[in-house]
């Protein structure tokens, strides 16, 4: 059976209200997750919408949803599938479809209107969704492919397998009402109708463990078909299906076979009849096309002299092509892809090109990025241009590639000789800033090249800047690093022979990323990957999908399964992911406790506090035991933290026995933890590293009477022993900035955030980094492990930027109630941040000057905020030149820690504190 995913579908709304006879637009066109999705496998989707108002104190009181079987019926306000009626509710997200039973291939059209305390809206614009092929038997036809290589292919360690081209012609002799193409193209596909590419996606579909689940994409192709003869064309690339390397560590790296596809074209005619064009052995196929090789690690070779002109159009002579083979189906269940594909999201221009030797040039993009190069070239037939990619240069100006390990990372293009040729690869991507160009038939210029930035199609929802240039540059570096590593799953790096979805890299990182990118569906999909990779006994791997067979059973990496679910609930209100994955999460918790409990605590660890700053800049990992945190402490503390999170999940799902069990086990383990790791003088844990003391503090394990002493030991370690610098690795950095701030030392967090000498984020930026390094000493460490484009060392820095510096944080129900509480730090003069939450725009812009604090904020309609202002008297506050007591949208609550706390309704406000 197909898994029934349930993600958000968002209305596309233009709601108009009338107030005092004046029309006011309250919403804008926006789709939070899926834009008019085609081919979902959810029969009762959750419908959501966003309200946007230019006046204050808007509260939704009711809504009505109509869902119809045709756009014509919806236009007549006929909800023949579902008319919710007027529902008294203030909820704008997760409103579940509750109409007639929906079926595979069914098209649905919907709209919504709402009532508020300010009046009734008009109907929104029409939105739509359609149901995909939900059941295995809904798919017709057979899997096709070519289960062999050819003379020009190479199946050694450095696999070189050419792309496979498929085509079929068919006839349409009736008027078409609707046509939907459904394709499972593995590893990667391009789809064409009558010579025109379908969609703007690249590197589709998203990667999965193909033995567990394979994703299909659906497209409305009605406008691409014509009366009479039509042609379908597909190209299959290797992707991760025909694994990135063959005959290379088979004990470690999974392979799945040769590329293959399953295809259905469903046509509904105006007269009510239907037909389906399927993949079968009537299709023709060749591997003797222009894409000679494609390998994610090594690059793509393209021979333009081998182009098959018109191959995907009607009338092409394919007599020399082979008959498609009927092949074994992929092992995984068929699943609708409920997340967006990758896309060319931006095109950037190089900043320079420099000749380094005869016919060899270095192109500088000015920015480390992930994607590829688009090239324009004019030359003779058979000329060959080689493009080699790297993140940095050697001292002599040549390309530096040692940190790529054995990834060749090069593209080769053979010219056809037909005028100016424009080319970019199809089935690979590179992580790079610099490109070595050789064989170019003329003197190249920057105008001959474009950088194509590729990542999952998702909205940028956050912006952030401050009065400090180091913080601003680090934020920019984080932005580029995060999007470089969204590749249908969150990968660790985009450049070397790895590119794996390591769980530990995103434990907290995903949370920070959600303030910059709308990453909801990406991480919901990743939870499915993790669940599918779980063994029957409960074990979860370090990498999921488990393309590498790494089942280390360390607590910290696998616990990401739980923390991501928590993030999706707190940031996006997605309770369904918790409900869906709770059994698997509980299975892992039970497995770890049963197998690895020693002396009352779970102690299994593999990586420790990965990548702490080493004592020597040439080292990858520290060898000084005073810098290394006991892995058993890290494992035990993290497991206790997960017990707390599972208590919350059990409470949310009304699993009261589970909640009680988690609570009791947590108390027992906390006691055992303190007995084992809290030193006799009660001032520190284990050997007293920052991470060793930080985790018990932020996880609330430290006995209350000892907390101050342990905190002082932590602060002394940072300020004295480490001279005000960071000393944590992947685990400690996940809590460092918030831990310091929550315990009254935001000033130290700020110092760590703005340092520019080693080790620090600012050190990376100061030394030319335009993304985030894998190592604090990434410019000097052994090249075996010094990726210049990782995000794991960001820890909770981005969360701290938004929640603590800007002061934007969800208090309850995915920003239904918001905490606006910025840390006013002496050396920081201002912050400006915007975050488009699931409920609308939240903004914070504060500055201080001449003894005055000014703060502009935006609170979305249908929400409220608790606003903290730096004064111990409400009399010192004015809003829009009015006293707070005179403002009906503001209520004074209390004075807390020398801050005035106000309850603020929705709208835009400008506070001044003297």
UniProtKB/TrEMBL annotation:
Protein name: alpha-L-rhamnosidase
Domain Bacterial alpha-L-rhamnosidase N-terminal: 174-346
Superkingdom field: Bacteria
Organism field: Arcicella aurantiaca
Catalyses which reaction(s): Hydrolysis of terminal non-reducing alpha-L-rhamnose residues in alpha-L-rhamnosides
Pfam families xrefs: Bac_rhamnosid (PF05592), Bac_rhamnosid6H (PF17389), Bac_rhamnosid_C (PF17390), Bac_rhamnosid_N (PF08531), Ig_Rha78A_N (PF25788)
Residue intervals of the Alpha-L-rhamnosidase concanavalin-like domain: 354-455
Keyword Hydrolase: yes
Domain Alpha-L-rhamnosidase C-terminal span(s) in chain numbering: 807-882
Record-linked InterPro entries: 6-hairpin_glycosidase_sf, 6hp_glycosidase-like_sf, Alpha_rhamnosid, Bac_rhamnosid6H, Bac_rhamnosid_C, Bac_rhamnosid_N, Ig-like_fold, Rhamnosid_concanavalin
Start and end residues of each Alpha-L-rhamnosidase six-hairpin glycosidase domain: 460-805
Keyword match Zinc-finger: no
């Amino acid at each position: 059976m197909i898994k029934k995913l349930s993600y958000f579908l968002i209305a596309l709304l233009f709601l108009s209200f009338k107030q005092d006879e004046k029309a006011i637009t309250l919403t804008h066109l926006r789709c939070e997750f899926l834009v008019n999705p085609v081919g979902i496998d959810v029969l009762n989707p959750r419908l959501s919408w966003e309200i946007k108002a230019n006046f204050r104190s808007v509260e939704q009181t009711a809504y009505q949803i109509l869902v119809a079987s045709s756009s014509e019926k919806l236009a007549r306000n006929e909800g023949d599938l579902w008319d919710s009626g007027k529902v008294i509710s203030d909820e704008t997200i997760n409103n579940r479809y509750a109409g007639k039973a929906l079926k595979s291939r069914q098209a649905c059209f919907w709209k919504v209107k709402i009532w508020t305390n300010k009046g009734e809206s008009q109907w929104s614009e029409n939105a739509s969704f359609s149901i995909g092929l939900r059941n295995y038997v809904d798919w017709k036809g057979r899997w096709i492919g070519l289960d062999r290589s050819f003379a020009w292919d190479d199946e050694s360690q450095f696999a070189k397998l050419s792309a496979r081209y498929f085509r079929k012609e068919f006839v349409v002799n009736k008027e078409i009402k609707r046509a939907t193409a459904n394709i499972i193209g593995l590893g990667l596909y391009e789809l064409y109708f009558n010579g025109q590419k379908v969609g703007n996606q690249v590197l589709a579909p998203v990667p999965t463990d193909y033995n567990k689940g394979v994703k299909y994409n659906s497209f409305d192709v009605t406008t691409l078909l014509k009366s009479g003869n039509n042609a379908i064309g597909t190209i299959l690339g290797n992707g991760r299906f025909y694994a990135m390397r063959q005959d290379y560590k088979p004990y470690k790296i999974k392979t799945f076979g040769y590329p293959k596809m399953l295809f259905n074209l469903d046509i509904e005619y105006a007269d009510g009849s239907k037909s389906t064009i399927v993949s079968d052995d009537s299709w023709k196929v060749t591997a003797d096309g222009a894409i000679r090789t494609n390998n994610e690690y090594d690059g793509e070779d393209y021979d333009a002299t081998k182009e098959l002109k018109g191959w995907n159009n009607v009338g092409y002579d394919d007599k020399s092509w082979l008959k498609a083979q009927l092949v074994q189906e992929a092992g995984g269940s068929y699943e609708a892809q409920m997340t967006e594909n990758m896309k060319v999201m931006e095109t950037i221009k190089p900043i320079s090109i420099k000749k380094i030797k005869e016919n060899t040039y270095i192109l500088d993009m000015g920015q480390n990025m992930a994607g590829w190069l688009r090239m324009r070239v004019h030359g003779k037939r058979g000329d060959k241009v080689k493009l080699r990619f790297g993140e940095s240069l050697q001292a002599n100006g040549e390309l530096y590639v040692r940190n790529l390990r054995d990834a060749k990372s090069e593209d080769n293009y053979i010219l056809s000789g037909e005028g100016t040729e424009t080319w970019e690869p199809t089935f690979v991507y590179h992580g790079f800033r610099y490109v070595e160009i050789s064989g170019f038939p003329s003197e190249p210029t920057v105008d001959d090249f474009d950088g194509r930035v590729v990542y999952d199609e998702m909205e940028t929802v956050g912006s952030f800047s401050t009065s400090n240039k180091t913080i601003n540059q680090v934020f920019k570096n984080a932005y580029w690093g995060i999007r470089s590593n969204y590749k249908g799953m969150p990968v660790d790096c985009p450049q070397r022979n790895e590119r794996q979805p390591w769980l530990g890299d995103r434990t907290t990182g995903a949370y920070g990323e959600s303030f910059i990118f709308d990453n909801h569906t990406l991480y919901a999909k990743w939870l499915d990957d993790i669940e599918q990779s779980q063994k029957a006994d409960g074990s979860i791997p370090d990498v999921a999908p488990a393309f590498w067979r790494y089942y280390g059973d360390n607590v910290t990496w696998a616990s990401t399964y739980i923390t991501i679910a928590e993030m999706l609930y707190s940031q996006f209100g997605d309770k369904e992911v918790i409900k869906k994955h709770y059994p698997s999460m509980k299975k892992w918790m039970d497995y770890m406790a049963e197998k690895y409990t020693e002396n009352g605590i779970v102690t299994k660890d593999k990586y420790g506090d990965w990548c702490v700053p080493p004592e020597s800049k040439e080292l990858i990992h520290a060898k000084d035991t005073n810098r290394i945190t006991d892995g058993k402490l890290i494992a035990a503390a993290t497991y206790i933290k997960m017990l707390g999170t599972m208590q919350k999940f059990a409470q949310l799902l009304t699993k009261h026995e589970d909640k009680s069990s988690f609570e009791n086990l947590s108390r027992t383990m906390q006691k055992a933890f303190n007995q084992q790791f809290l030193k006799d003088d009660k001032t520190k844990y284990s050997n007293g590293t920052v991470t060793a003391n930080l985790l018990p503090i932020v996880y609330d394990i430290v006995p209350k009477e000892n907390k101050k002493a342990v905190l002082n030991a932590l602060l002394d370690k940072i300020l004295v022993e480490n001279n005000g610098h960071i000393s944590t690795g992947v685990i400690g950095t996940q809590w460092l900035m918030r831990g310091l701030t929550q315990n009254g030392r935001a000033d130290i967090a700020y110092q760590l955030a703005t340092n520019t000498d080693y080790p620090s984020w600012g050190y990376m930026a100061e030394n030319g980094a335009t993304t985030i390094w894998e190592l604090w000493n990434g410019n000097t460490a052994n090249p075996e492990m010094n990726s210049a484009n990782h995000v794991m060392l960001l820890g909770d820095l981005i969360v701290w930027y938004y929640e603590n510096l800007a002061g934007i944080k969800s208090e309850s129900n995915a920003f239904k109630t918001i905490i606006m509480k910025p840390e006013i730090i002496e050396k920081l003069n201002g912050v400006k941040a915007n975050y488009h939450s699931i409920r609308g725009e939240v903004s914070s812009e504060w500055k201080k000057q001449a003894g005055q604090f000014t703060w502009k904020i935006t609170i979305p309609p249908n929400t409220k905020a608790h606003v903290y202002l730096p004064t111990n008297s409400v009399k010192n506050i004015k809003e829009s030149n009015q006293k707070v007591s005179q403002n009906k949208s503001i209520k004074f609550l209390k004075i807390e820690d020398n801050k005035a706390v106000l309850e603020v309704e929705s709208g835009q406000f400008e506070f001044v504190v003297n």
